[in-house]
Specification:
single chain, alpha+beta, Alpha-Beta Plaits, 5-stranded antiparallel sheet, 4-stranded antiparallel sheet, 6 helices, 32% helix
C-alpha cells in the first residue's frame, strides 16, 4: 500500500488518505466514529466495520475562515432525555457559576440536523436509533464562554454522563448531554442552529 501524501479533508469534510492497492486508487477514511476504505454501491458510500456496512449520512457544515477569529466559546446540547430536575439544576448551576452562559434556547432537532451534528458512517440500526432519540422531544441549545472553555466543558459533560448514567438504557447514544471537542467543532455545530450573523452577535470577535 503506497501513501500518496498526508491526510486531508475531502469535499465532505472527512479526514481521508489517498492510497493505491494493486494499482487502484482508493480513499481511506479516518474519522472519530470509525476507519476504513470508502466503497460505493447503489445505496451510496460506505465503509465496512466487522461484517457490517456503514453508510455515509453526514452533511458537514463548512466553517467560514473569518469565524475562526471569534472569541472562545463552546456549544452544549441537553438532549431529550435530560429531563430530571436534579440533573437540570446541577447543569445550569455549574454553567452559570463556573462558565458564562451566553445563549439558551429550546430547539426541535430534525433528522437533517442529526446528520450535520454527527457527520459519520452509520449502520441502519444506529441511524434509526439516533434519529429517533434526538427527534423524540425538544433539546436545549446552550452557548457558553470562559477560560479554557472547550476542555472544561468536555470534562463537565463526561462527569454528568457518568453520574447520571442509566444502566437500563441499553444503547450508548442515550448520554444526556453533548459538547464540542474543539473550537472549530463548536463553531460548526453552532452554525447548524444559528446563522452567521446571530453567532457573531452572541460571541463577538477577538480584539
Amino acid at each position: 500500500m503506497e501513501n500518496f501524501g498526508v491526510n486531508f479533508l475531502d469535499n465532505f469534510g472527512r479526514l481521508v488518505k489517498k492510497v493505491t492497492i494493486d494499482g487502484v486508487n482508493q480513499y481511506y477514511y479516518m474519522g472519530v466514529d470509525a476507519q476504513g476504505f470508502i466503497k460505493t454501491d447503489n445505496n451510496g458510500e460506505y465503509i465496512i466495520i466487522g461484517d457490517e456496512k456503514r453508510y455515509w449520512k453526514g452533511n458537514k457544515v463548512v466553517v467560514p475562515t473569518k469565524l475562526l477569529l471569534l472569541n472562545d466559546f463552546s456549544i452544549c446540547i441537553l438532549k431529550p432525555d435530560a429531563k430530571s430536575p436534579e440533573l437540570r439544576n446541577e447543569i445550569f448551576s455549574v454553567l452559570n457559576s463556573d462558565f458564562q452562559l451566553i445563549f439558551s434556547k429550546k430547539i426541535s432537532i430534525t433528522a437533517e440536523n442529526v446528520f450535520c451534528l454527527y457527520p459519520y458512517f452509520f449502520t441502519k440500526s444506529w441511524e434509526r436509533a439516533l434519529v429517533d432519540y434526538l427527534t423524540e422531544d425538544q433539546s436545549d441549545l446552550l452557548l457558553v464562554s470562559g477560560s479554557d472553555v472547550v476542555r472544561r466543558l468536555m470534562e463537565f459533560r463526561n462527569y454528568i454522563r457518568v453520574k447520571y448514567y442509566d444502566s437500563n438504557r441499553k444503547h450508548c447514544i442515550y448520554n444526556l448531554i453533548h459538547s464540542a471537542d474543539n473550537k472549530e467543532e463548536a463553531i460548526r455545530e453552532a452554525l447548524i442552529f444559528l446563522d452567521n450573523k446571530k453567532l457573531i452577535n452572541l460571541v463577538g470577535f477577538k480584539k
